[in-house]
Amino acid sequence: MQPEKSGTGRSGRRPQLRRRRGVKPRVLAKAALLVFVLILLSALTLLLVAVFRRPELIERRKNNSGLLVESGEAQLLESLTKPALVPERAALIRLDGILVLQSGEHYATFTVDGITATMVRYDYVGEYQLTDINASGVELTRGDEVVALTLSGSNKLDVVGGGGAGA
Amino acid sequence: MIKTWTGRLLPALLLCLLALCALAAEEPFEGQDYPSLAPPAAAGLVQRNAYTPTPEERGIYAEDLAGRVAYVSEAVIKLMPETEELISLDYRNVDLRELVARLSKLAGRHALFFGEPVKVTVKANVVTPMRALDEALRAAEGMKYLVDEDVILVGPEEMLTSTFVYTDVATTKPLRYLSAEMLERLCETMELRYTSLEPAPDGVRLVAMPHDLAHILMVIESLDVADGFVNLDTKPELILERLELRYITGKQFVNLAERFGIRSGICCDHTDAREVYLSGNSKTIADLRHIAEVFDVALNEKLTAKGSTIIAQPYRFSVAEPEAVAQAVADCGISFRILCMSDGRKVVYAVGNAVETRQAVKLMSKLDREDAVLVVLGGAGSTKTLTTLRDKIVKETSLKVAAFTVTENLGASGDYYYLYCVAPQKQAEEVLPYRMEG
Q: Which of A12, A47, B137, B254 is the most buried (most CB within 10 A)?
């Protein structure tokens, strides 16, 4: 009579489940749940931050599906090309740029007390008259006072602070 | 132990979450620091060209033009050809919208901008406006443009996909005097398409394709001004007149009107390049029609073809009444084209090529004194006939040579010169018998 192989017979002792030493299944489940909660919270945080900072992103995503874009303010820039409206008496004038056309027309763009305006020769920038525009800078005149503003050097004129050109 | 760890970590995480949310809510958007580029409506802002109003005139403006734009120009106004020019530019830290607007106009198109403004630094030498726009948008990072006929769409790359031009765009636009219903009728008249146009609080909610949206916004910007309406207090009605141009385009006309100080009230027909709609009070509409009368003429087309630039050369009167002199010069028999605006400005414009305008301004300057009368004695194909006549008059009357002028060649096809005399009334009567026949 051959001896019965242990653990293989029906009538033998039920084999014991092998356990990892020191880690209980309940602890494992808790850890997994914690990781899941952490991931969920991080995703929620990112989503909330995105919504607070750029609410239109969500809106845009929603609308793209139906070929409709909620554009927010679609700005027609036509009015910016019209002759500029600037303060009659300016406190701070800053030269922003110069544009020269092939035909010889020169334009100078200024920020006058926070308002951006593009001018041509002989226009008024506050109380100063724009008497010259060339490729590197402009000349502003008020009575006998002549101020040169350049893009590479001093491009600001602080009228309140004494009328001098600053860097 | 885990229980304790979870118990401590969760409140900490929740606190972090709240802090992040609070930070996100407080942090300003990038665009908030940018100055407003919209034309400000506040009084105290003026549009001036090469002219400082006298204290008396300032008084008139304060009274008559309160809250409106005071505009007088002494700059030469040119009829710009519709050809794309090469340009050079150097811009430092400028609002992208300003640059896009200018470059689009130079490219003969309208710009519709989406998204937040950014500042850019761009330098380009001898390039086309569209190439310069490319450079500007590259500097802006993440911005792109699409061209749809006469409209350039500019916005963030992720928004402006290749299908954007076929996408419906929804936007809300504030209205001041127009109502949604009136806008609907205008769109119908001007054959502008849209998907929906509904009243919104203080404005209108528009859904249309970007190209059509740009045109509708243009109608609003041009016509939603107080001057174009009657019965503003009770039942506002918009005044709208159609003007057909023959030799210049609607865009050229709008540019001219802007340089003369008329900022709104003109709307181009997007289906016909030579048709415009005029709006405003009767004086403004009359002024606009006068501008068309002097610039939209066959002669200008001929002169332009010969390489001449058509300009409006201003002359500012100091003694004589501008309107009376303008009328006298216009009726004198020499084919001068004179433009006098009805807003009370002291500046009168001579329109034509450089020679014509120079001669007209010279004549106006001679008439800018008290009791000055103009007598045109005649015209001839050579100056010799005229100088002979002048010498004869000087010999036989009390008038001196200085009172006479022989013009430069003012012939449209061949040579033709004129002789005229500017003198006080009594002396002018002496020369009347010497006027040439025909």
A: B137
